[in-house]
Design brief:
Helices cover 39% and strands 15% of the residues. The chain is of the alpha/beta class. The chain has 2 domains: 274 residues, 3-Layer(aba) Sandwich (Rossmann fold); 223 residues, Rossmann fold (3-Layer(aba) Sandwich), CATH 3.40.50.2000. It binds GDP-alpha-D-glucose (GDG).
């Protein structure tokens, strides 16, 4: 994109380097290990597994399922939920040809399973089986809405929403974890599968499996932050949660800080902590705690690095009723508005969750318009907030609060613009999200605390035009990797507003330099590398070879020589 004098006149800017928002933005991009770097792909992960674990069955178990069956346009259709866990794990399970066990919560899920409650994955690259587990209303309430989402979720995200712990929810949580463990045992073909247990809904499953499948290799992954011991101590059943996770051979976390917090808690609970590798011994069993920063599958058609400038259409997955069709039209109108008015578009994409800092970013946008009044009518902020956990009161309250803020801000600037903020509380499909990312000048991620944040990585992956600026919260795990984003503290309204201004006025050259570095980082540290690192550590545990744990997955020690690696162009 060339420097646009028309837009510059509107923004009243000169073509000059922008002020950097934080020290981090000046860090050079870092790519560890190989030169040229090796880019993991689904195919390479498949080969790696076929070679190193040909005889081993892989079972993934999570509360959230990768797809639901819903009734849309007079037929049953698949819907992919808005979930970082699903975004990351779906390509991995396809590469593994494994089994995925999850709670069947779709309205028509029961109609599409066989007599073993299984159904095949939708056609696409790779195949796997989804095994659905049914929870009744009380189980769902106590386990999911209760202990997991009203207790552990706020506990682990220090965002000042009080965690709620009730005995009845805990009892339900234990029961449901036992049911998930039963399902794993039923699905296991032999006594030693590799089981990947996902997230805070299933913390007790590793220990339950340890007693029932003693030869299984159990890897747990905690997708959300693990807080400091003194914060975590608010959970009355923390010792049981810890004991559950210590049934894992490997307990995976997003960041090194999470690992340190986990280790410190274990030490305070009297567990034996030892070795150069963070390891914990409990009841004669050893658990390695390690950081595996999660990521996304790098889009296949963009792997060549060739700029495609694909035009894609915005559409919702289920625009059946009027309100959804309206949402669809609104999203389309937002991107068209940008083209017609030659304005600037700031976007956000999140689940409608209080940890994502929606209020904070609205306040920062308001400040931007106040400090730079010439931007009123020129810049629009469009936030997708996909509905989530609507049965939990805190989420309903938060939703109302966010809508009130949007209304207040839109009223305030009514004279200059019809609606500077557009809030779309709807669910969009991946093609639409990709098109939305590509239409943005700025992507705003203001999480108050986030395990990783995949939206930031998806935005980067979508920008094969190498344009657009990422403004990223320092409290998202992704900030540890994406150094060339503009890193901000979402609580500092003025700083976020300044970052937005810097992003909006950034020269094409600087945008391009930053985006190239970000793209290299995300393409390199993609979800296949994430999976390969964890699985190769799991295999080292299985082989009893501690020396191999934590080694880069592409060294000759643990990658079979005949696997050809795709090097950077
Ligand atoms: C948890 C952790 C960690 C959003 N709207 C729609 C939609 N999405 C997708 C995004 C993205 C995903 O939801 C959100 O992922 P995040 O990583 O940002 O956040 P969480 O859901 O909270 O994920 C998080 C993650 O697990 C992985 O470990 O990064 O820290 O909290 O993929 O694109 N997807 C669809 N329609 C939408 O409208 N289909």
């Amino acid at each position: 994109m060339k420097f646009d004098p028309h837009l510059a006149a509107l923004l009243r800017i000169k073509e000059s380097p922008v002020r950097l928002v934080s020290q981090r933005t000046t860090s050079p991009p870092t790519l560890p290990h190989q030169t040229p770097p090796v880019f993991w792909t689904e195919e390479l992960l498949g080969k790696f597994m076929a070679t190193t674990m040909a005889e081993d069955q892989v079972i993934i178990v999570s509360n959230r399922q990768p797809f639901t069956h819903e009734f849309v346009d007079k037929q049953i259709k698949l819907l992919q939920p808005a979930s970082g866990l699903v975004t990351a794990l779906e390509p991995v399970v396809r590469a593994c040809d494994g089994v995925w066990i999850a709670h069947g919560n779709g309205l028509y899920d029961r109609d599409l399973v066989d007599s073993f409650d299984r159904c095949p994955a939708p056609v696409g690259a790779g195949s796997y089986q989804l095994r659905r587990l049914w929870l009744n209303a009380l189980e769902q309430q106590g386990h999911c809405d209760g202990f997991a989402n009203s207790g552990l979720w706020p506990l682990c995200h220090s965002v000042h929403v009080k965690p709620v712990f009730k005995q009845a929810d805990w009892d339900c949580y234990r029961t449901v974890n036992t049911r998930f463990a039963d399902a794993v045992v039923q699905e296991a073909r032999g006594s030693s599968p590799v089981v990947l247990v996902q997230d805070y809904h299933l913390a007790l499953v590793p220990q339950l499996l340890r007693t029932r499948l003693p030869n299984a290799t159990i890897v747990s992954f905690w997708h959300i932050p693990w807080g400091r011991p003194e914060e975590m101590a608010a959970c009355p059943w923390l010792p049981e949660v810890l004991a559950g996770l210590l049934g894992s051979d490997i307990a995976g976390f997003q960041t090194r800080q999470d690992v340190q917090n986990f280790m410190e808690l274990a030490r305070r609970q009297g567990k034996h902590v030892s070795g150069e590798l963070p390891a914990l011994a409990s009841s004669g069993h050893t658990t390695q705690a390690r950081a595996y920063p999660i990521s996304i599958a790098w889009p296949v058609n963009k792997e060549s690095g060739i700029k495609t400038k694909t035009k894609t259409k915005i559409k919702t997955e289920t625009p059946t009723d009027n309100s959804r069709a309206d949402q669809h039209a609104q999203l389309l109108a937002c991107t068209q508005w940008k083209l017609v008015s030659r304005g600037k578009l700031i976007i956000g994409v999140d689940r409608f969750d209080y940890t994502k800092g929606l209020i904070e970013r609205l306040k920062a946008f308001e400040r931007l318009l106040l400090i730079h009044p010439h931007l009123q009518g020129v810049v629009r902020f469009v936030q997708i907030a996909a509905p989530t956990r609507t049965s939990v009161k805190e989420y309903r309250d938060y939703r109302s609060q966010v809508f009130r803020e949007v209304e207040r801000i839109n009223c305030k600037f009514r004279a200059a613009s019809d609606a500077p903020v557009v809030l779309l509380d709807s669910h969009y499909d991946r093609v639409s999200l990709d098109a939305f990312y590509r239409s943005a000048d700025v992507c705003l991620v203001c999480s108050l605390h986030d395990g990783m944040n995949l939206v930031s990585k998806e935005f980067v992956a979508a920008r094969d035009d190498e344009m657009g600026v990422l403004v990223l919260s320092q409290f998202a795990g992704a900030a540890h990797e994406l150094h060339r984003a503009l890193i901000v503290n979402p609580h500092q309204t003025v700083q976020v507003a300044a970052a937005m201004f810097a992003a909006l006025t950034m020269s094409a050259e600087e945008q391009s330099a930053r985006m190239r570095a970000l793209r290299l980082q995300v393409r390199y540290a993609n979800v296949y590398r994430w999976a390969a690192s964890m699985l190769s550590d799991a295999m080292a545990v299985r082989a009893g070879s501690k020396q191999l744990i934590g080694k880069p997955v592409t060294t000759s020690q643990n990658l079979p020589a005949h696997i050809s690696l795709q090097a950077a162009a």
